[in-house]
Amino acid sequence: MHSGHADFGPLFHDGALEIKIRDDTVVPPVWRDPNDVVFVLGAAAENRVPDSADYGLTGADPGQLVWAIPQNQVADVPWLGWNTQAPSFLDTHPTGMTLSVTGHQGPGTASLFLQSGTFEAPQALVDGRKVLPQSMWIEPNTHVHANWVFSDPGVHVLTLQADVDYPTGPPQTVTTVLRFAVGDTDPQLALAATVNDPAEPAPAAMRTPEATAALTDIADGDSDRLLWLGLGAGCALVLLVAVIVWARSRGTRGAAWDAEKDAQPSMPEATP
Questions:
Q1: How far apart are CA 32 and CA 23, in angstroms?
Q2: Ramachandran region, residue 244 (left: φ > 0; alpha: ψ -120 to 50; beta: rest)
Q3: Is residue 45 part of a domain?
């Protein structure tokens, strides 16, 4: 995927919890297996790290060339987010989900952060300087876009684990991967990359306070927010505008999600 909107998120199929990628670049939208999707970050995704210690979380040096998927949609760059809005997921009445990045395969570092308000510091969801796993708490019925930053070109594979909590009984757990081809990398190399065994399950105690606070603010705040990505030519701050969808009603959820049932499966067995 070279451009356009996509979200990954949990849903239930035949009673089993799965994570799928909803590809909105086609009409009608299609549910895809994450192992079949590569997010391609080419020249349009190039940025330079600002001269500020706040962006040390990227694991890159000030002024260093990096590749980023920003919080807002830009031309020729995938717009990757996540949501917990699928009706088949919400109908199970979860209290929330812990999303953990348990592994990163690839050169350099991978990081994920939010930035809100005017000149506020970035809030790390995944700090490229710290060891994995790193986890964040996600409320039900939320839709989020954040800044994904890769310090070096090449094949990058992120291993994810979702632990869904319920009022009674144990959490349900599912794992998946996200694949990225950064720079001039052939996307086929990312598709063919062998994924190492995932790390041990990430306990709730591994949730980073910054990530939990950042995502709690989103759940409690307005649905439309100004988001900043401090990456740009000449290390200038560039204002990026994105929409965080916080849809509580089924009607609003249907509009935001565009109806789960309307998305077509990429394979028959993947029909939600």
A1: 7
A2: beta
A3: yes
Q: Is residue 232 part of a domain?
A: no
Distances (CA, A) of 159 to 44, 113, 175, 243: 25, 17, 7, 26
Domain count, the chain: 1
Task: Please say if the pLDDT value at position 272 is more than 70.
Answer: no
Statement: residue 224 has pLDDT above 70: no
Query: Residues 6 or more apart from 228 whose CB is under 8 A from it?
Result: 115, 116, 117, 118, 119, 120, 122, 237, 238, 239, 240
Q: If you count them, how many residues does the chain have?
A: 272
Number of H helices, E strands in the chain: 4, 18
Give backbone dihedrals phi and psi of 158, rounded to 5 degrees, phi first. -105, 130
How many other CB atoms are there within 10 angstroms of residue 131's CB atom? Answer: 7
Domain range holding 28? 4-191
